[in-house]
Amino acid sequence: MKTSDFNFELPPELIAQEPMAVRDQSQMMVVDRKEQTIEHRKICDIGEYLVAGDLLVVNNTKVFPARIFGHRSDTGGKVELLLLEQVAMDGEFITEWDSFFKGSSGAAVGMPLTLAEGHVDGCIVEKMGGGRIRVKLESAIPLPDVLAKYGAPPVPPYIKRGRDVNGERIRMDRERYQTVFAKETGAVAAPTAGLHFTPGLLTELSEKGVNKTELTLHVGPGTFQPVKVDVVEEHRMEAERYRIDKDTAEAVCKTKADAGRIVAVGSTSVRTLETVAKEYGEIVKCEGRSEIFIYPPYEFKVVDAMLTNFHLPCSTLLMMISAFAGKELIERAYSEAVKEKYRFYSYGDCMLII
């Protein structure tokens, strides 16, 4: 299967640069796989498509302010790091991180860095290719406390807004590039389908008898990476850390046994559930790293319905929903989304596939 089979024309003006003023007022396209129909609604209407006994599975990962700015200590050249995952710790104040590097010059082993307005000293200890480095960071207080004040939310690179006057957009992103159920810190990108929910909408669904459970998948840098191979089957996903606790495993198994539907909120919930089902034969309490790549044809073992945002051309996410709903139906849905001017990507609108 060719990667180009998943290409489509997307007008740049449809890429959402800001979140909706109110989370639960996003547009929601409803795609019915059985009836092969498409409806245009809002996310606040989702309760009309769910019934008592359905189980909403959300990803409770929390985005941390992983972008950190500074300069080379030797030349003064500007640098920016996107911290991905802590890989080592030496006491409370010295840590090593897998990171992306951006600077006025290329990264070099031994390069000294001054970051976070002088509150963090850094040194590149390894180059890993593709702009990726391993960096040692030292601070006078724990790094999470530094990032809370001086770090910026790692919004995706296709959100281009120009200069951020007085940090207003950073403050907005700290709140809106985070789901209302986020609690487990570790993601460098939000599970964006979850951004549409409000406490009120969740309460409304609960009162209807729709259950909710949580899992954790820390969204990693793979979410930013395009498919660079011509043949779909040759692409490899980057591993992302996941965890399913006992309560969630039992809730999923009980729902399936009672003939209820598993409604996965976002591709990360889908990938976690399908990873565990593939590895263990059922949903169990466990943790690990998911490398599953879902593309047509794929037989879903757990997920019965899915809420997802609108995705990049030729992306692994578009391939996943094509596997779930059928390539032709998704092509028709995306053509309709462009025609109706749906908002695309992280801060965009959503699609419910039932």
List the helices and strands and how they pair.
Blueprint: E1 27-32, E2 37-42, E3 55-59, E4 61-63, E5 67-72, E6 78-89, E7 94-103, E8 112-115, E9 120-129, E10 132-139, H1 143-150, H2 168-176, E11 184-187, H3 199-207, E12 211-217, E13 240-244, H4 246-257, E14 262-265, H5 267-280, E15 286-290, E16 305-309, H6 316-325, H7 327-339, E17 350-353
Parallel strand pairs: 1-17, 3-12, 3-14, 4-11, 14-16
Antiparallel strand pairs: 1-2, 5-6, 5-8, 6-7, 7-10, 8-9, 9-10, 12-13, 13-15, 16-17
Helix pairs in contact: 6-7
Notable features of this structure?
Thrombin, subunit H, single chain, 9-stranded mixed β-sheet, 354 residues, 21% helix, alpha/beta, QueA-like, 6-stranded antiparallel β-barrel
How does this model look, in words?
This protein is of the alpha/beta class. The chain folds into two domains: 239 residues, 3-Layer(aba) Sandwich (QueA-like); 85 residues, QueA-like (Thrombin, subunit H, Beta Barrel). Helices cover 21% and strands 29% of the residues. The chain contains seven helices and 17 strands. The strands form three sheets. Strands 2-1-17-16-14-3-12-13-15 form a nine-stranded mixed sheet. A six-stranded antiparallel barrel has the order 5-6-7-10-9-8. Strands 4-11 form a two-stranded parallel sheet. Strand 6 and strand 7 form a beta hairpin. The longest helix has 14 residues. The chain is globular. 40% of the residues are buried. The model has no long low-confidence stretch (mean pLDDT 94).
